[in-house]
Structures are given as C-alpha cells and as structure tokens.
Amino acid sequence: MYKFLSIVTGIIITIPVMSTIWLVSFFAIDLTFLLSSLISLIGAGLTYSLISVSIYVRFLKKHQLSMKDYRYIRKNLAEANHKIRRLQKALFSIRHLLFLKENMELLRVIKKIHRVTKKKPMRFFQGGERFYFSHLDSAVELTEKYAFFPLSLRKMKKWNKCFIRHVIP
C-alpha cells in the first residue's frame, strides 16, 4: 500500500508541476520547444524524487524505524514469501483429506502473520522475528519432509517388489 500510495501521489503532483514548468519556460521565458520540454522533464523528475523521499521518510517515522531496520525487515519478508510458497506447494502435494483442514488453517495463519508484518513493520521486532526465523522454517521443513515421505514409501514398495521378482524366481 505504501508503494502504491507513493507512486500515485507522485504522479498526481508531478504532472501539473511539469505542465506549469513547461508553460512558463516556453511562453514566459521564451525558450525553444525542446529546451522547455527538457527543463520540464528535469523538474518533473526532481519533483517525483522529492515526493517519493518525503513519503518514505514519513512512513519510517510513522512506524518508528530507521532505514537500516526497514531494509532488514523487507529482506526477511521477501525470504518469508519464498518460504510460504514452498510451504504451500508442500501442503498441496499432501493428498490426505484428513489433514486438509489443518493444512488450510496453518497456511491461513501464516499468511495473516505475514500480511500484518507487511502492514506494520514494527511488529517484526515485537515477536514476528522469532516466528520468521524458527517457527516458519520448522513448519516448511516438517511439511516438506512429510510430503516427501509417502512418495518415498511408494518408491520403496515398488523397488522391493521388483527386487523380490528378480531375486526369487
């Protein structure tokens, strides 16, 4: 939401500023069309940059974070997103109807925690860090092993049948 708001606000303010700069430089200062266009594009770029930086700084102040902390949180959220995808893939590869409800509940809770941490980054340090570094890792690892176990059993049974046929005629 922050990124979307930053882009929309920047565009809404930048377009009138760019138009005003072009009109002033073309008609009032009497510069050429290309030079006026170049100056207005430079002004638009500077305006957009200032607006983006000011919205970013306000966002950090609102959530009481430093740039370093926010970068750290974003990096960990991106890693968590990959782990959530792996978990989802492993959960949907398990074909037991008995575990379907628990799997969906687990996935729903994990996604909710991820969403809350994305909205309010300070929550990462208020308990979310432990979730992302230990609980999510454990859930992904256990689920992947559990999903792999039935597949390996089937292969083992096929291998045993094949082995028994070849050894015992």
Describe the structure.
- The protein is mostly helical and 169 residues long.
- It folds into two domains: 1-62; 65-169, no CATH class.
- 85% of the residues lie in helices and 0% in strands.
- It is built from five helices and no strands.
- It has helices spanning 2-28, 33-62, 67-93, 100-119, 128-167.
- Helix 1 packs antiparallel against helix 2, helix 3 (67-93) runs antiparallel to helix 4 (100-119) and helix 3 packs parallel to helix 5.
- It is elongated.
- The termini are far apart.
- The model has no long low-confidence stretch (mean pLDDT 83).
- Based on the structure, what is the oligomeric state of the protein chains? single chain
Q: Helix and strand succession?
A: HHHHH
Q: In which range does the helix fraction lie? A: over 70%
Query: Which regions have little confidence, pLDDT < 50, spanning 5+ residues?
Result: none
Query: Overall mean pLDDT score?
Result: 83
Q: Give the overall shape.
A: elongated
Strand content: under 5%
* Euclidean distance between termini CA atoms: 68 Å
* Number of E strands: 0
Summarize the biggest pleated sheet: none
Return the structural class: mainly alpha
Summed up, the helix count is: 5
- Number of structurally distinct domains: 2
Using only C-alpha atoms, the radius of gyration works out to: 28 Å
Organism: Gracilibacillus boraciitolerans JCM 21714
Keywords: Membrane, Transmembrane, Transmembrane helix
Pfam families: Halogen_Hydrol (PF10112)
Protein name: 5-bromo-4-chloroindolyl phosphate hydrolysis protein
